Amino acid sequence: MIKKRRGKRLSQRSIASMAGVSFRTVQLIESGKHDAKISTLGLIAASLGYPPDIIAVALKNIFLQPPDSIAMVTERILKDGRSSWKIWLFNFVDAFRKHRDPSYISMPPAQGLPRDLMALFASVAEALCAETGVPAPPWCSSVAPLKDPWFVANMESLKATALLESPVYFRKRNIFVLGNFLSRR
Question: In this structure, are 99 and 55 located in the same domain?
Answer without folding.
Answer: no
